[in-house]
Amino acid sequence: MAEDKPRLARLTAMLTQLQARKIVTAKEIADKHQVSIRTIYRDIRTLEKSGIPIVTEEGKGYSIMEGYKIPPVLFTQEEANALITAEQLVRKNKDLSLTEQFESAITKIKAVLKSTQKEKTELLSSRIQVRNNSEHEKTSSYLIQLQSTIANYQLVNINYLSLDQQVSQREIEPFALYTTNDNWVLIAFCRLRKDFRSFRLDCIQNMEIMEEHFSPHNMSLQQYLEQCREKYQSTPDIPMTQV
User: Fold this and answer.
1) Helix 26-33 vs helix 37-49: angle between axes, to the nearest 10 degrees?
2) pLDDT for 67
3) Cβ atoms within 10 A of the Cβ of 129, count?
4) What is the pLDDT of residue 66?
5) What's the pTM value of the predicted model, to 2 decimals?
């Protein structure tokens, strides 16, 4: 029986992993649980025999059949503590859309916690203090919308005020987001400049999401960053363009 417990925990974790992603490869599952791919194949067959409708897409990976619902996942106390800590960190973020949406999500998550966990998380919440952005300043409210435009390949029209106070209107193809010094920055292909540019979200004055969709850019964020490093390695004092 002692040997069955680790496998039972792995099968439960695999279900969570399959719910969290549209497609998961056997290698990704094996790497996460530090077992062989052959072991994962056996685990998948076990889950299928137990009635879980797992869909196998040849050459791609595994997913759970559309519409199939699994009961809410139970959180360990450590996982609940991590969520409460993340809540305190997100509250200090300068993008209003992120803080509002996270508050909504964390409320739903707290609803499935056990009563003893709720008591402990409430205590922990009162004993954690995040000291950055002590004034609770909110400088933007576009992060969540821009995440959707990245996922949906939607064109965006923005009025932008650059750091040197130059005003411009841009049609952009959102590509990726990163955060630095408490500010969010959007990487996007600018149709005006015909090249990729970086736009600080706190410099966006107005934003309109267009109905038009653009073709996905054939590169990953990592490839983009590598191109930037190659471009600026001889001039390391030049910052990434934000106009």
Assistant:
1) 100
2) 80
3) 8
4) 83
5) 0.71
